DNA sequence: TAGGCCATCTGGTCCT
DNA sequence: AGGACCAGATGGCCTA
């Protein structure tokens, strides 16, 4: 089942998306593999240019951001570097999971890549409408099911609210 | 050029 | 003690 789910307009509250909803026509920002593997991206970013940073635990001078702020030596330094490594790996895993989620969402134009927040909101909407369709079928609201698939986002909100209301009002019978 | 998104570093907190 | 998780800070990249 692959309902024509769209992101609700109010789910994308950032000014960038407000009104236009043109995220699907956006060009691909980073060269992630077509398989959704972020490894290439990660490699690219690991080799980024040195950055500068202010402040720090014991260092107040500007230092490259993607290098340790302070000279990592001694046990403390080793622990910090190990922790950084784990954190990097953890975030890569998180990104892999997001890519997997992107891959199972309804097809998008090839040059579009949902951002993290868009992916989560899209998935949320996708699940919600899917549940609403199942509930509508189960409750005999067959006239609403096609609308769930074909109405614009604004209508989706109204319909899902209607379904929710219907479920609530009929749950006791 | 501003704003959005992102990766990374970092210190803090909680848990085992 | 060490690992997992989190949030803040920072700066690069990209698009409008």
TrEMBL record:
- Stretches that traverse the bilayer: none
Q: Which PROSITE patterns match?
A: BHLH
Domain of life per record:
Eukaryota
Coiled-coil zones: none
Molecular function terms from GO: DNA-binding transcription factor activity, RNA polymerase II-specific; E-box binding; protein dimerization activity
Q: Which InterPro entries match?
A: bHLH_dom, bHLH_transcription_factors, HLH_DNA-bd_sf
| Record's keyword terms, sorted | Transcription, Transcription regulation
GO CC, sorted alphabetically, is: nucleus
Q: Where is this region: Disordered?
A: 1-86
Residue ranges of every copy of the BHLH domain listed in the record: 78-130
**What's a GO biological-process term for it?**
axon development
Q: Record's Gene3D superfamilies?
A: Helix-loop-helix DNA-binding domain
Q: Name one Pfam family in it.
A: HLH
Which PANTHER family does the UniProt entry name for this protein?
BASIC HELIX-LOOP-HELIX PROTEIN NEUROGENIN-RELATED (PTHR19290), NEUROGENIN-2 (PTHR19290:SF171)
* Record-given protein name: BHLH domain-containing protein
- Native organism: Monopterus albus
């Amino acid at each position: 089942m692959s309902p024509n789910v769209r992101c609700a307009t109010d789910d994308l509250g950032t000014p960038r998306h407000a009104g236009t909803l043109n995220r699907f026509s956006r060009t691909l920002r980073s060269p992630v593999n077509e398989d959704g593997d972020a490894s290439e991206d990660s490699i690219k970013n690991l080799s980024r240019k040195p950055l500068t940073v202010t402040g720090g635990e014991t260092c107040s001078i500007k230092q490259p951001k993607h290098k340790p702020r302070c000279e990592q030596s001694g046990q403390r330094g080793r622990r910090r570097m190990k922790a950084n490594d784990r954190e990097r790996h953890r975030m890569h895993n998180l990104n892999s999971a997001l890519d997997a989620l992107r891959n199972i969402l309804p097809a998008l134009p090839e040059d579009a890549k949902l951002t993290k927040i868009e992916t989560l909101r899209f998935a949320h909407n996708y699940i919600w409408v899917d549940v609403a369709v199942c509930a509508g079928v189960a409750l005999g609201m067959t006239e609403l099911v096609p609308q769930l698939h074909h109405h614009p986002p604004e209508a989706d909100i109204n319909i899902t609210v209607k379904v929710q209301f219907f479920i609530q009002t009929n749950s006791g019978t």
